[in-house]
Amino acid sequence: MSIALGAVTIPPGNALRILLGRLPWLELSGNWPAYFETILLDLRLPHTILVALTGMALAGSGASFQGLFRNPLADPYLIGIASGAGLGAIVVMSVPQVGRFLIPVGAFLGGLITILAVYRLAKVGRMVPLTTLILAGVAIGSFASALTSFLMMISDEMILQAMNFLLGGSTVTGWEPLVIALPYFAVGLVLLILGGHSLNVLQFGEEQAQQLGLNVERVKLFIIISASLTTAAAVSFSGVIGFVGLVVPHIVRLIWGGDYRKLIPLSILGGGITLLLSDIVARTVMAPGYLPVGIVTSLIGAPFFLWILRRAKKEVFW
Amino acid sequence: MNQSNNPPVIQIKSLSAKYGEVTALKDINLNVYKGEIVGLIGPNGAGKTTLIKVLSGVKDCSEGEVLINQKSINSLSPSQRAMALAVVPQARQLGGAFSVEQAVLLGRTAYLGFLGKPASEDLLKAAWAMEQAGVDDLADRKLAEISGGEQQRVLLARALAQDTPALLLDEPTNHLDLRYQVNLLKLIKELVKKEGLSVLMAMHDLNQVSGIADRVLLLADGKEKALGSPKEVLTPENIRNTYQTEIETYTHPKTNKHMIFPAE
Question: Which of A165, B58, B153, B224 has its CA 20 to 30 A from that of B66?
């Protein structure tokens, strides 16, 4: 569906036949305009895959961060990665004669540098207290956001492009960036899933987790690295998309419970689906223009979540 | 008891610990032997909880050494430590979304791989622990849905699932009503007898300590004030010096236990 709909609507039947026709053992042909194939294979398909990966990354790392901080308000951006990535992207935009293709690079570096700085600042001796981590993240995050706003203010022509990034308009098209992004997503997502059991133990607090035999500091580092890697990849290529990483894990938790070995893979799945659906809406409601998908996720997602929250009569889900 | 035959299971040697510049524990020495219950008492802020934290490796000591089965806890990895020594914390609302069985299985963390997939041995041990602590019929209930007394027994079951020679309990009868207090202490006493555990248990109620402990360590201001049998430690003089309270003592006519009551 995602590949069929958009500014140019390709009948889903045709879309499917075009896709299947690419399989070497199938001989399918039909009478559709040649540009259908171009749009579908060179634009829509990589876009769709990137959107799905982004949703998966955000919801997966959101679930991990919620588990790490044992806080339902945690989202992938809690410790400043989005602000850092935003700043990185806007720094690249503000340098004249630099290609758009460098925006993801700037965003990725910005995000990772921010996380490194936050982690180093939060470190007390050989421990990283989680409260210090959050506070350092919030402080560095607002510093980066302020710099971002400043850079946007002083250059008029950049504002629209920058806003688009900050609201989750994707920065790239085509196969090439996807191939570059894929390893980061893949490694990050696998690591997130592997961390499930450790997060379960951490739900009893760091002290008890350590008494149960968990190497708490190592686990914290592991979760922060894997969640930051996935989030940085998502933000760099798709901009800052809110809501998915916060709420998809909650919906999964409401329905399937709080076991992180299930919660993380199911959140990843749910995040992919949620963002694909939001992206279809974003590309169709104002066709031939499009909305940044971040606006759609919050506009539709927030009421939907409230509805789920009221319906689920379970008192204990967190 | 068997102090001459066997080396101590828990051995605390001139242990000191600090919070910043403030001394929390000063020169503590204690041996806990197999099959022995040592009660840990003292007024609030005496260092009971700090001692449990240092013993379980959650807090570093500034001086001295702790040996479990003659191995320094600093030489043990977190999982090796959790196989040597289990802690029963005070019941708090943590991990409420987990079922009793899931929570008890987490006691096997040190034995499980990184992915936490339990082997049949782990499931058997968890089932045994739940049965011992009397929570086997609650297996599928969520922790948030059961009472404080039941939660405390779940935490005991989780510690038993760790399958350790040494057990530390931090005021396990706090917040429990009388029935659960009596049940829990009886259960601990039976387990020590049956499994030959070595137990160090911080407690508030001095008569409960006297009823269950073989020996008592009295702390105040982070220092040892007295160590010995309940009768040797729970004297009017010791209690006056540490709790600033006057007590009188008597021997319980039925149990022959050393008992105290406030004199004022």
Answer: B153
